[in-house]
Amino acid sequence: MTDKYLNTNLSDFITIRKSGRPYIDKTMFIPQIEHGADYAFYVRPHGMGNTTLVSMLKAYYDINMKNEWQNLFADLYIGNCPTPMRNKYLVASVDFRSLSGNINTIQHELYSMYYAEFDRILNYYEDIFTPPIANQLKAKITKLSTPTDAMALICSEAKHLGYEFYLFVDGFDSVADCILEQGGRINYADDTQVTNMRTYFKFFDSVNMASHLSIAKIFAVGTIPIVISKFFAGFNRGTFYTTEPDFAMLSGFTPTDVKQLIEQHPLRHMFKHSTDTLINEMLNNFGGYCFAPQYVNAEKLINCTETFNFLDKYIDSDFALPEPLQQCDKCPLTNLRDHQYDIRTSALRDTIRGFTSLISIEKMIPIDSLYDIRYFYSMVYYCGTLTIVGEKWGTLLLGITNKALQDSINKHLN
After folding, report:
1. What is the pLDDT of residues 398-407, one digit of tens each?
2. How far, in Å, CA of 342 to CA of 358, rounded?
3. Is residue 328 over pLDDT 80?
């Protein structure tokens, strides 16, 4: 039995809204985002709805979506209290998640991505970059040697025309995945790797230079708050949101949200389990997240992607409860194979056995120190294996996020 009501792979806000599929409203956080840093780097584990969040914000701020605002937002929270910044900006967007993961090909992939976005901007905003202006810019871009120069050219023209950009970045830390896959080390002796990684970070460097032109705001999402070490030039002036209470509930589903999805489901009358039973299964398997100590006693958050996966499997299996997830592969432990492995796993074993750990979460992790022992607990927290369970003496208390993770990791360590 196939369910068309919930689509696991559908993360585009406009498509969700126009198709009538359920959308869990996150627009009440728009004022906090506006009052926060102009260059915001927002960090959450995979599957917590970051891509849909970015898609919603793009639709809200895009000057070309002004005529669609009523259809998309009128019945949501922000529909009753729109902010002055709505539909004010030219929207630029880069999605680093599309990188193949091969450090040796990053430069080619990035150049293709950047130039495709420049072309989209000039075509999409044809009322602003009129054909004569767009054609002139495209001709100049072909003569420029790097995407950095092309970005500066477009930003300069936008400023001349009286417009500003809002830049959205998905997967700003994707290069970290490339490093993790090769064992957590940068090969500084490999000129190709170093050159290609410079190209990756040069994007943020170019944003830094262009920000005084017409990039007014940036909202970037990722999993790990990586920063560029002094070895790389890059954009290091952004603010990372990691454990701030204002954004604690911005991503993920609460049990109340999931209850809404279940109760409004067109096949609800065929479900063989109560709503509470299904929600408890989700909490035990892929829930239990808390991202700020002030919210320890509030509803725990549930992974959005796995919520849809769970309901898909539940319906396809004639409403039988799906098997527990094997989540160990989502934890950095699976890649730890160096001399500090025993130190890290022994520390985590104590946490698994129920001993919460006093941890100072690192706000930023240098790109070339991803596997440094100093950042281990922070890495495991950002990947979603550990979550905040309290606070003591101004230091966070961390524990295993849910039962499925605890069982999976315990089995892996033994």
Report:
1. 888 888 887 7
2. 19
3. no
Exposed / middle / buried, residue 294 (Cβ in 10 Å: 0-12, 13-18, 19+): middle
pLDDT score, position 104: 72
Q: CB count, 10 Å around CB of 1?
A: 9
Quick one: CA dihedral 221, 335, 388, 251, positive or negative?
Answer: positive
**pLDDT for residue 208 is more than 90:** no
Q: 106-124 and 147-161 are packed helices; what angle lies between their axes, rounded to 10 degrees?
A: 20
Cα separation, 2 vs 352, in Å, equals 38
Q: Give the model confidence (pLDDT) of 57-84 as tens digits.
A: 999 999 999 999 999 999 999 999 999 9
| Residue of 122, 112, 44, 134 lying closest to 90 (CA atoms) | 122
Q: In 95-251, which ranges are continuous DSSP H helix? A: 106-124, 131-142, 147-161, 174-181, 191-210
Q: Which residues contact residue 88 at a Cβ distance below 8 angstroms, ignoring those fewer than 6 apart?
A: 61, 63, 164, 166
How many CB atoms sit inside 10 A of residue 296's CB? 15
Q: Within 10 Å of residue 204's Cβ, how many Cβ atoms?
A: 23
The tens digit of pLDDT for each residue in 221-234 reads 988 887 654 333 44
Q: Which residues, 6 or more positions from 201, have their beta carbon under 8 angstroms from its beta carbon?
A: 175, 228, 232, 233, 234, 235
Show the DSSP H helices in 264-414 as ranges.
275-286, 304-316, 341-352, 376-382, 403-413
pLDDT digits (tens, 9 = 90+) for 218-265: 999 988 887 654 333 444 456 888 889 999 999 999 999 999 999 989
Mean pLDDT of 348-361: 63
Distance CA 303, CA 282 (A): 8
Q: β-strand 301-302 against 287-289: which pairing, if any? A: antiparallel
Name the residue with tokens 């969700």.
16
Q: pTM of this prediction? A: 0.89
Nearest to 218 by CA among 197, 239, 249: 239
Residues 217 and 214: their CA atoms lie apart, in Å, by: 9
